[in-house]
Amino acid sequence: MNLTSLLAAVLEQSTPILLAALAAMITLRANILNVAVEGMMLAAAFAAVAVGDWSGSAWPAFLSALVVAVVLSQLLALLTLRFFADFIVAGLGINLLAAGGTLFILERYYNSPGGLRPIAFPDIWHIPAGSLSWLPVLGPAFEGQSVIVLIALVAVPLTYVFLYKTPLGASLRAAGEDEHAARSAGIRIAAMKALSLAISGLLAGLAGAQLAMDKLHFFLPDMTSGRGFIGLAATLFGGGQPWMTAAASFLFGFFGALGDRLQVFAIPSQFVLMLPYVAAIIGLTFARWRILVRNRPARIRDNPQ
Amino acid sequence: MAPALSNFLRVIRAPLAAILLTLALGFLLVASITDEPVRAYRDLLLANFDSLGNFALFLNRATPLTLIALGVVFSFRAGVFNVGGEGQLYAGAVTTTVVAIAGASLPALVLMPLAIIAGFLAGAVVGWIPGVLKVRLAVDEVVTTLMLNIIILLITSWLANQVIRDTTAYGAVSWMVPNSIWLPPLPFVPRATSGFLVAAVLAVVSWIVLFRTQWGAEVRAAGTNLRFAEATGVPAARRVISAMVIAGGLAGLAGALYVLGVGHRFEQNFSPSYGLVGLTCALLARVHPIGSLATALFYAAMLNGAAYMQISTDVPRSLVNLLTGLLVLLMTARLRRAAQAA
């Protein structure tokens, strides 16, 4: 069934992007441009493979992925909030640290700079084949997907509820929108930012676990290959709203799934892979342009040319 | 003299502390791996000066780093957080290669400046886009430069794989550029590119331009406070854009000189993230042009030294990647807030 296999491919491609996008979204709402999602994903993927190889069971591997990503996010929080490091620079530092650290461990302790391929790797829970056959088209597409795909789909409404329907989420958004006003209202800015980074780490950890544990069961030094940045692009394209961010993630995942199939036609895959980033720039530019147009009467004095 | 010296010491204290802390952490790591950590560290930092060949490779490594760092200096002084060095570098390198291959029949005297200018301009265009978007529409430049990096890398990957691919070679590399337009080697150091001379001279020129001309003063004024600069009659928006054009151009020039001086062809993986390392050098040097030359030299020594260290001891060379991560993570950290006014 062609449509089913395309749907399954889209789901598979979208899940890490969706999780990365939600990770970037939750910090964006606290006014942090989180460029470290990529690094946290990579470290999580490595932790999943290394611990899965060592322990031989899936849940320790899964949990260690989450723990590693959250620890990295809190390291970033410590340096930026406690020691006033720049968010972008320190975030890029996390990426470099994750890439360099995993490569160093591969070379030093596994003696294989090319990657880590355990001979046997524990399987994480997948939806059993045939269990959803009563659902046409969609059911078979979900069969064989890992439990993390389901977690990612649940995470979208969860982040929505958290951000818009809980006091904590409101405080987090307030801290992101106007620091001074939020501080006057008694909100602890640093705590809110650290919390948003922790949630971001959790989601990035899920994304890394999905990359390593779903089908591949191995780790490569650059296996995230920019998915953290595609997620960031999806968040920016979606304007930091959970539903729009999810939609953008699925759109970009669809492009990714399409990219593999478009090679049949004469379109080079690089141009398909480029779409998320171009979309992010255009989307952001358009959003700013609309704000500018809306505010134009008030801005005449401000902008002499 | 004494106040000038103490002023200088105060300025370099924080970056020096970050470097020393990182090196100390690295030393602990190395000591846990090998029995001769001192030997490993000597090779990491000093093996570049063991032979003329090593020294040449060291200068070749320092050239693109210096130029990218200078570009970052221009953009940061203009208040643009430009993390697009990698994309601008690749745009310059690939454009120079394409021009050199397409114009192979032209005389070298015409083709060489043409190829270099094309590389500079390609980087400049990639720098211009985030500059204009930031100044006119307030689009966040971190996002645009990050996204442009990936876009450019994909374009060059397409060019290197499908358009200018050397079909006889292994991997995504272009055809060789005609050897009549290869840069001459540095005098006395046969295998070093004379591009380093260009980078060193441009470091001094950048300092003069930024700190001793009215244009430079206006750029820095615009970078400090755009609206205040506009209010005092400085064409600040235009200055920011032109600073970004120069920033991109310098990174593009780094790519052009790499192709003509070192690689002699475009390789898709030629940069061990020079863009980020160049940014690191510039920030370590407190966004100062001459300081950037110094930090770029230091970093080039470390990047190359790692290979010598791996050969002589069994410390993996990726130690340097790890240390770079630590350094970038630590380098903007402060023990207490410098100014509450931010």
From TrEMBL, chain A:
Keywords, ordered alphabetically: Cell membrane, Membrane, Transmembrane, Transmembrane helix
Location within or outside the cell: Cell membrane
UniProt key word Transmembrane helix: yes
TM annotation in the entry: 30-51, 58-81, 87-106, 144-164, 185-209, 271-291
Predominant location: membrane
Pfam families reported in the protein's UniProt record: BPD_transp_2
GO cellular component assignments: plasma membrane
Entry superkingdom: Bacteria
Keyword Cell division: no
Membrane topology: Multi-pass membrane protein
One Gene Ontology MF term: transmembrane transporter activity
PANTHER family registered for this protein in UniProt: GUANOSINE ABC TRANSPORTER PERMEASE PROTEIN NUPQ, SUGAR ABC TRANSPORTER INTEGRAL MEMBRANE PROTEIN-RELATED
Listed name of the protein: Putative ABC-type transport system, permease component
Organism the protein comes from: Mesorhizobium plurifarium
From TrEMBL, chain B:
Subcellular location per the Swiss-Prot or TrEMBL entry: Cell membrane
Topology within the bilayer: Multi-pass membrane protein
Keywords: Cell membrane, Membrane, Transmembrane, Transmembrane helix
Keyword Cytoplasm: no
GO molecular function: transmembrane transporter activity
One annotated Gene Ontology cellular component of this protein: plasma membrane
Pfam families according to UniProt: BPD_transp_2
Protein name: Putative Glucose ABC transporter permease protein TsgB13
Organism of origin: Mesorhizobium plurifarium
